[in-house]
Protein: Putative methanogenesis marker protein 11
Organism: Methanomethylovorans hollandica
Amino acid sequence: MKDIELNDPYTTPYRGIYAICDKHNEYVEIVEHSNCYGGAAWSKFHYSHSPLILKTRSIGNMVRYLAKTGTCKLELKPSVAAAGIESIIVDKDEVHITYAGLGGGGVGATKCRAFAQGVLRCDYSESGGGRAARGKVIVPRRERVLIGIDDTDSKETGATWTLTHNIAKALDCPEAVYLSHSLVQLFPVSARTQNCVSTVLEFGCVDAISTKELLESIKAALLKYSVSDETGMVVLRNFNAHEIYPYSRECRSGELSREYAVQYAIDNGVEIWLNGNGVIGALASLAWFSRPDESIRMDAEINDP
């Protein structure tokens, strides 16, 4: 038998909490990176009923809440409505999120989130037992940066999805948080390496400087490690990728030309950082950010997140 010592037995800090905002601060996606998915799943169920929450999704041990900004009144009730998000306020370069909960839900709403990575400041009340509790966390305001990449390997060497993940992991930092990675199945064209799969990386960046440094570093790493002369890298700085949906459907159902892909990118505000033949698949991948379970299926239909 082992005699264990727990410094704080009733606190399980989240790994990280991040807030991705649209350009007008009308919508925000709160991304909670959990150390205990059981607790996060409980929160997901209850928080999904908060008036501010539009949609919830789980990806691995991350729970993502698509929400509108503002304040609402929560009617907390044991078991059926025990916790929720009470307000989401954007103040310049910060996002203030107020959680509320009863009993164990109050513990999760306060200390567990207050001590997460990425939290700048916090303010929380006593929690646990039969008490209602509130906790406010202040996190940096971030904007979404999507990087589509394809054609970094050869028939003999490498795989694009492994290279891109390793690059993203190496560049993950507080100013540019690595949020998701999706493999996107494309139409099996004649020029494919093997499986005809591209990759999209998703980052949450705090400002233009960190975004520029991130993108320059990714490009430099691709030039260093890619074994192909046709690598494509495209970038979309936007809250969503709606404009790419039609193109992605085309790329997953037939063979397209590089010229068509480049023109589509230009017409829809997508930056081309490496313009090899891989831009065709790289552009298609943008539509599937944070959808790794769907993006690998050719019969999956892209819809709004």
In short: The chain has two domains: 16-141, 151-295.
